[in-house]
Design a protein that fits this description.
- By secondary structure, this protein is mainly α.
- It has a single domain, classed as Arc Repressor Mutant, subunit A (Orthogonal Bundle), CATH 1.10.10.10.
- It has seven helices and three strands.
- It has a three-stranded antiparallel sheet.
- Helix 2 packs across helix 6.
- The chain starts with a helix and ends with a helix.
């Protein structure tokens, strides 16, 4: 029996294991969902990672966060958080300020332009999430969340 994933990726041989099929299903699903979000963000000239940074900084409030803390909170890790923040600062989405006591410590906060952009994106992103997962019952979504948490919490 050919599974849906096998059909989508045009693989005729069976997977080596159920684990392999599960991992490929997770990766394929994540890529498809992220692609939709990336396409929706394109007209606003930001990437999903930049959107993630804006949400992180909005949540941090006026205190802001240092570069390392922003990087640790990202959904998808990036190799150079400094350059990511540099580009976002250049576009006016965030502000960075050096500490008065330790010049090496730089605090990053979301700028008004970043907050305004998040406000404009709230409706479109909510609609994408509804379209992506609205057909799945709440109980099944809870099970999915719990299963994914379990996968990430391996010993």
């Amino acid at each position: 029996m050919v599974t849906r994933l096998q059909d989508e990726i045009k693989q005729r041989k069976p997977f080596r294991s159920l684990r392999e099929e599960a991992l490929l299903n997770i990766a394929r699903t994540a890529a498809a969902l992220e692609h939709e979000v990336a396409q929706a963000l394109k007209p606003y000239d930001i990437t999903p990672t930049q959107y993630n940074v804006l949400r992180i900084l909005r949540g941090a409030g006026a205190e802001g966060l240092c570069r390392n803390e922003v990087g640790a909170r990202l959904i998808r890790r990036v190799p150079d958080v400094t350059r990511l923040l540099d580009r976002m600062e250049e576009t006016g989405l965030l502000v960075r300020q050096r500490s008065g006591t330790d010049r090496r410590y730089v605090t990053t906060t979301i700028a008004k332009k970043g907050l305004d952009l998040l406000a404009r994106l709230e409706g479109p992103i909510t609609e994408i999430h509804r379209a992506q997962l609205g057909h799945v019952a709440e109980a099944r979504l809870r099970t999915l969340v719990d299963l994914l948490d379990e996968v990430r919490s391996r010993p």
